[in-house]
Amino acid sequence: MRPETVRENGIRPSEVAIEAPPATDAGLVFIGVVRTLWASRVVTPRQGSDDGTVCRIEIFDP
Known about the structure:
single chain; 62 residues
């Protein structure tokens, strides 16, 4: 099996992109952020491990 090519942006062959419908009664509110050593999707490991690099999850104040 050939490994999949990772791209910074875009969709994979098995994914489908659609236009999102306009918001009506709900919205998206970000409640936090994940901090890692990687600044790009291209260099981020595809699978994590228990002995791998540590990341930090920060939850914003209410």
